[in-house]
Amino acid sequence: MNHDQGMRSRRGLLRAFWISGVGALMALALAATPSAAEISDGVVKIGIINDQSGPLSDLSGKGSVVAAKLAIEDFRKRSPDIKVELLVADHQNKADVGAQIVRRWFSEGVDMVADIGNSAVALAIQSLGREKNKLVMYSAVGTVEITGKQCAPTGLAWLHDNYNLVAGPIRKLVGQGQDKWFFIAADYAFGRNMVAESERMLGTVGGTSVGSVFHPLGNADYSSFLLQAQSSGAKVVAFANAGEQLVSSIKQWNEFNMNAGPQTPVALLMFLTDIHGMGLEMAKGLTGVTAWYWDLNDNTRAFAKRFYALHGAMPTAPQAAVYSAVFHYLKAVAAINSDDTDRVIEKMRAMPVDDFYAPGARLRADNKLIHDFYLVQVKEPKELEKPWAYYKVLETITADVAYRPLSESDCPLVAGKPK
Fold first, then answer.
1. pLDDT tens for each residue of 313-323
2. Is this model's pTM higher than 0.85 or not?
3. CA within 20 to 30 Å of 202's CA: 104, 259, 334, 349, which one?
4. What Å distances lie between residue 371 and 107, 118, 320, CA to CA?
């Protein structure tokens, strides 16, 4: 080989090395560049499942669908290139129906399911989320099992549990001498767990339970239950039911003139739509705990105005929680450009919530979103200054006291707990 041939050979080798190097760098760059292909099927699929037509439909139902649509609308303004699809179903407050729907959804590529709104259905769906490694985000699910013994890496509680709901009223009223309680409760996982949590809390603050009675879901006649409460010797009659059940209970409480008697009624799970349904004259003076109220500040009122324009009612706490859950989930998907469940949950933990619902809130090790609660009382009719502004906020229950201490958790996800 002469000198010119040697030079050409060396230049060819250098060119080959250069081309291969550029190719490697391009491959690395492409690998690091976000691509819609990293989202399975090219679309993020979200399912909203709840009671769409039954006794719990007003507090979540179609309003939760409106809230999810608003969250998706706001997300698209930030990330217009990510396609989002929303599915909706009615579980009819039946665990087998809910589980069947969600199992089919997961097989069809649904990435996240939200709302639920019924403890028995939630426990069935929790098992599916764990089995299929799919994310489920709960609002209006009271049983503490979801983030307790039955907790799962894929199940996130965005609104409340029964501990949050009973701790504030029990501490306050027992401290005022209202120490004997009787419970009228819905006969399914939510009601039974709420009574159990209440009795546990009464034991820690010096109160006592003098009895409890459980009624079927969707019950219409509460007369026998109210008469038992009246003759129990209780100072407080606590209702561990919700929606139409609570409305009917309080209406009959007034019909029996128990509102003029010595006993104090407490709604352990009270929603804005319940107060609207029974009217202020009947509901006045009821106390309860809520995770959110539309008339708290300018940001909550701004969301409520948008929601009302679409739904014709102000949003409940569960509906606001659905917005927050869907929006936070989608922000995490966009941040990592993936709908991979494990990676999305990791990102959701790393990011604080940044919205009107629970600004600055974070997920705890037991998958509870930690935020403030509010002890509220229903206004007298003469105190109503504007439509739907039914609550007086008696006090803020800060996040550090609103939740059962993590050291007392029986969730296997918490470090040091048995798996």
1. 999 999 999 99
2. yes
3. 259
4. 34, 21, 14
